[in-house]
Amino acid sequence: MKITIIGATGMAGSALVNEALRRGHQVTALARSEEKLAKLPTDNPALTTHVQGAFTLSTADLQATDVVIDAFATAPSLAFQHVDLAAHLVAQLRETTSPRLVFILGAGSLQTGDDHHLFVDDIAKDPNAASFISVPQNQLKELNFLRDVDNVNWVGVSPAANFHPGDAVPALLGTDELLVNAQQESGTSAGTMAVAILDEIEQPQHHQVRFTVADK
Amino acid sequence: MKITIIGATGMAGSALVNEALRRGHQVTALARSEEKLAKLPTDNPALTTHVQGAFTLSTADLQATDVVIDAFATAPSLAFQHVDLAAHLVAQLRETTSPRLVFILGAGSLQTGDDHHLFVDDIAKDPNAASFISVPQNQLKELNFLRDVDNVNWVGVSPAANFHPGDAVPALLGTDELLVNAQQESGTSAGTMAVAILDEIEQPQHHQVRFTVADK
């Protein structure tokens, strides 16, 4: 398939580029830094890189591909752009079924505990929360926005609490509850996330909902 | 003040143009039909008309004015554009305080009855609802979206159940409950709406919330 990855040079995005290439897909990697794009495996003829801001993607740009993965990341001070980019992509693709949009959301919008409270409320108790809480807060707003979208082919994916670099390991899958493995760890490597997303792209199991993946 | 009105030729928009001019404001009227714009009081030097789709409004366009009123209307088949236009305007104005954005929302997002259910659920019981229910449904989604926006200067306004043409009459004001007057009627004329909005623009009483107005 033709897969476009927004934020392709980040932790999640670069793992996705590698996994998609490994599976033989045609990959278009978008990012704002030419220098960072050059560190992707650009010797692979299946990879195309573009320096392009995602807010300039038109309907025609998007419809040139089968799947668009939004792995956008930005500074906490601009975290509202998570919402605005989702709204931009959705607005370009109203009343279409292709491309499929895959949004990487944070763990904050997952539920946890016996009372099923939002995990973002736990994150907010971190002594350093003020410096980064805007990111999970806005990724929750992004999911709230997406849940009202019924005429675009979208799916959301959340990692577990600790989203970290690393190769894929066997995975746990869930829907809206924060996952914890048998060792009581709640983590997802970028590799595990990439495998789960490529599995979902190749064999769709979720439609207009968010699912979650964790390291087993 | 400089006031820009999106959807200026519609029932709400044209009443707003007249009321804003009557109060001595500088008005820019935007609409997609040049023919309909020509029916506004274009002999008034305080009125400027532009044929312009609202989705093309840039940050610079918007910041040339003090207030932008979104009185956009469209066909029920395109009702999702209510959400998309709100998202577009918000994205252009993140982390600003001016212009103020005023959104005319439907009555469907108001609560009614002892159980405070959404009025859109009552609207859905109309035998002809299938032909128009997408409009109140998407105006509810628009309000849901706006309620997550905390870094733009916005306010929403809902009419009562029957939003109809007509001159201003004395008004009832509320917040999130559908209003009914002493005669058990729930209606708002375009003139009453225009007066309530211009009052709110001149003397702000609401910030990042929705209020409602009805004919007394």
Automatic annotation (TrEMBL), chains A, B:
Superkingdom in the source lineage: Bacteria
InterPro entries: NAD(P)-bd_dom (IPR016040), NAD(P)-bd_dom_sf (IPR036291), Polyketide_Oxido-like (IPR051606)
Annotated Gene3D superfamilies: NAD(P)-binding Rossmann-like Domain
Domain NAD(P)-binding: residue ranges: 7-161
GO molecular function: oxidoreductase activity, acting on the CH-NH group of donors, NAD or NADP as acceptor
Full protein name: NADH-flavin reductase
